[in-house]
């Protein structure tokens, strides 16, 4: 039965990682469901062979950290895209209480089991996050009730486990009466449990004496560092539209431009009429002989902050080469924290650094970046190419690319602050993954093989506050990008100061 279920799920191997629910269940199956089957009483006939086969691959399998991370990724998708937990458990990616079409409709629908929902809720419960634990444990309880009496050897949890954790979650959230009714339901299935019997007596006493505070609406936990959360999430939720001229700069040459309204694409905030007139698509040589035969296809996305998208910047073959070069070196991404670098929940991805000597493709790409930007990329004026993979729920909450403190590790290069960013999209995604500019109030969807360019610093060297940006969580698919960060030193005559000190 277990083998047949696994076979049915993996008829299309690529879908296993594109759909976040399938990806979560795959990680969970490899970490806990499969070992549970192997070490269950039902497997006694083949014990030796099963154990030996499992031991061979055990070291390669996901660990507890991977599974808990996958559960947190589902909660992140639930939050950022305002998804209904009941819908997610049924394989539908629908905004809670919304009548709009789903954000993502997988080719084959996949549902989570009661044990899956219990695990997500348990991860939240263990973190003291009762806002999320209640939603997921409620779904686990509903599904366990439907299947009560049947049991799967791969499951670690049961209806009693789900009721127990849900009751305590409600108690911690201040809803004593609901905690009491769930605890009584638990005792119906397991009357001999003394701990839960003591909880029932405690809840009844609290209600009798009127000491139970009235439960208010559950508040979602908010990290103090993310003050712009609502704006960020609203940008991530915007529907994926076409960028610019019918999805790219493939339309008529610049002197045959369509009316300005056709250039807005997915960006719902209307720029000023003056800015609108300056938004355009063009073929650019930037005065570089390198671009004479094949000009860059430039789309101006915003004037302030200055953001441009270069379509068809890299070929499919080059993108695959760069992903292949980076793959063996990928490690969990870190962020600057004072003078150190460390892992953080607000940046979930894996990254690797490639020197231009790694492959002719990397060297050619760096030449192309230098030609398009007109900037000096020779060491130490730019950092190595950073290749980043955002998998299940991968994201990077709002941040600046430039350093906001002189103590930042960025200054160790002794080449000043990061003056500009070039971000190349090496893959497409089915849903999510947009780059959201939070203060400027617009987002750019993932455009495969395109490069996004923006200035991090003003001409006077001050950081541009409007470049606060985020990588929205990947809802479906596998997002790869390559970042090139260019520093101030070496650009003095390529991007000189303005006569206006405020510029």
Fold blueprint:
Elements: H1 2-9, H2 15-18, H3 20-38, H4 47-57, H5 64-80, H6 85-89, H7 114-126, H8 130-146, H9 159-172, H10 176-189, H11 194-208, H12 229-237, H13 273-278, E1 281-284, E2 296-302, E3 307-311, H14 316-326, E4 331-332, E5 335-337, E6 340-342, E7 347-348, E8 350-354, H15 360-373, E9 385-390, E10 395-399, E11 418-425, E12 429-432, E13 435-437, E14 442-444, E15 451-455, E16 469-471, E17 474-477, E18 479-487
Antiparallel strand pairs: 1-2, 2-3, 3-15, 4-8, 5-6, 7-10, 8-9, 9-18, 10-16, 11-15, 11-18, 12-17, 13-14, 13-16
Helix pairs in contact: 3-5, 5-7, 7-8, 8-9, 9-10, 10-11
Keywords:
15 helices; Serine Threonine Protein Phosphatase 5, Tetratricopeptide repeat; glycoprotein; 5-stranded antiparallel sheet; single chain; alpha+beta; 503 residues; Jelly Rolls; 18 strands
Report on this model:
This protein has 503 residues and is of the alpha+beta class. It has 3 domains: 1-60, no CATH class; 64-173, Alpha Horseshoe (Serine Threonine Protein Phosphatase 5, Tetratricopeptide repeat); 273-487, q2cbj1_9rhob like domain (Jelly Rolls, Sandwich). The chain has helices at 2-9, 15-18, 20-38, 47-57, 64-80, 85-89, 114-126, 130-146, 159-172, 176-189, 194-208, 229-237, 273-278, 316-326, 360-373, and strands spanning 281-284, 296-302, 307-311, 331-332, 335-337, 340-342, 347-348, 350-354, 385-390, 395-399, 418-425, 429-432, 435-437, 442-444, 451-455, 469-471, 474-477, 479-487. The chain has a 9-stranded antiparallel β-sheet, with helices on one face. A 5-stranded antiparallel β-sheet has the order 7-10-16-13-14, with helices on one face. Strand 2 and strand 3 (307-311) form a beta hairpin. Helix 3 (20-38) runs antiparallel to helix 5 (64-80), helix 9 (159-172) runs antiparallel to helix 10 and helix 10 (176-189) runs antiparallel to helix 11 (194-208). The model is unreliable at 244-248 and 250-268 (pLDDT under 50). It holds the Pfam family P4Ha_N. Belongs to the P4HA family. This is Prolyl 4-hydroxylase subunit alpha-3. It catalyses: L-prolyl-[collagen] + 2-oxoglutarate + O2 = trans-4-hydroxy-L-prolyl-[collagen] + succinate + CO2.
């Amino acid at each position: 039965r277990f083998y047949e279920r696994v076979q049915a799920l993996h008829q299309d191997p690529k879908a296993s990682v594109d759909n976040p629910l399938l990806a979560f269940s795959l990680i969970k199956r490899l970490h806990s469901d499969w070992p549970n089957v192997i070490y269950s009483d039902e497997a006694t006939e083949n014990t030796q062979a099963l154990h030996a086969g499992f031991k061979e691959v055990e070291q390669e399998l996901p660990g507890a950290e991977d599974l808990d991370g996958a559960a947190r990724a589902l909660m992140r998708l639930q939050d950022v895209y305002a998804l209904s937990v009941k819908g997610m458990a049924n394989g539908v990616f629908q905004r809670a209480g919304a009548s709009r079409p789903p954000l993502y409709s997988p080719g084959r629908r996949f549902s989570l089991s009661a044990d899956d929902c219990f695990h997500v809720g348990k991860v939240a419960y263990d973190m003291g996050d009762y806002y999320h634990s209640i939603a997921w444990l409620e779904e686990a309880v509903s599904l366990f009730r439907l299947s009560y009496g049947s049991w799967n050897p791969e499951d670690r949890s049961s209806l009693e486990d789900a009721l127990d954790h849900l009751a305590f979650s409600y108690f911690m959230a201040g809803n004593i009466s609901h905690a009491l009714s769930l605890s009584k339901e638990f005792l119906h299935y397991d009357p001999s449990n003394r701990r839960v019997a003591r909880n029932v007596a405690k809840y009844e006493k609290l209600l009798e004496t009127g000491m139970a505070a009235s439960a208010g609406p559950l508040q979602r936990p908010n990290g103090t560092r993310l003050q712009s959360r609502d704006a960020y999430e609203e940008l991530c939720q915007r529907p994926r539209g076409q960028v610019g001229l019918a999805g790219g700069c493939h339309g008529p040459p610049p002197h045959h431009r369509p009316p300005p309204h056709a250039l807005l694409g997915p960006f719902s905030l209307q720029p000023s009429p003056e800015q609108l007139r300056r938004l355009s698509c063009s073929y650019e040589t930037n005065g570089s002989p390198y671009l004479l035969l094949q000009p860059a296809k430039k789309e101006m996305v915003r004037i302030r902050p200055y953001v441009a998208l270069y379509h068809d910047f890299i070929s499919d073959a080059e993108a695959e080469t760069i992903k292949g070069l980076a793959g063996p070196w990928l490690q969990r991404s870190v962020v600057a924290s004072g003078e150190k670098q460390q892992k953080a929940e607000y940046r979930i991805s894996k990254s690797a650094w490639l020197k231009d000597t790694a492959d002719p493709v990397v060297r050619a790409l760096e030449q192309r970046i230098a030609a398009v930007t007109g900037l000096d990329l020779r060491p130490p004026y730019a950092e190595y190419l950073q290749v980043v993979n955002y998998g299940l729920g991968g994201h990077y909450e709002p941040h600046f690319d430039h350093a906001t403190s002189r103590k930042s590790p960025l200054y160790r290069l002794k080449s000043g602050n990061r003056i500009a960013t070039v971000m190349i999209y090496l893959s497409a995604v089915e849903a999510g993954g947009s780059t959201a500019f939070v203060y400027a109030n617009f987002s750019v969807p993932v455009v495969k093989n395109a490069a996004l360019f923006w200035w991090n610093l003003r001409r006077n060297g001050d950081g541009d506050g409007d470049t606060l940006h985020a990588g929205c969580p990947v809802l479906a698919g596998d997002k790869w990008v390559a970042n090139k960060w260019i520093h101030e030193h070496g650009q003095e005559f390529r991007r000189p100061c303005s006569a206006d000190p405020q510029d």
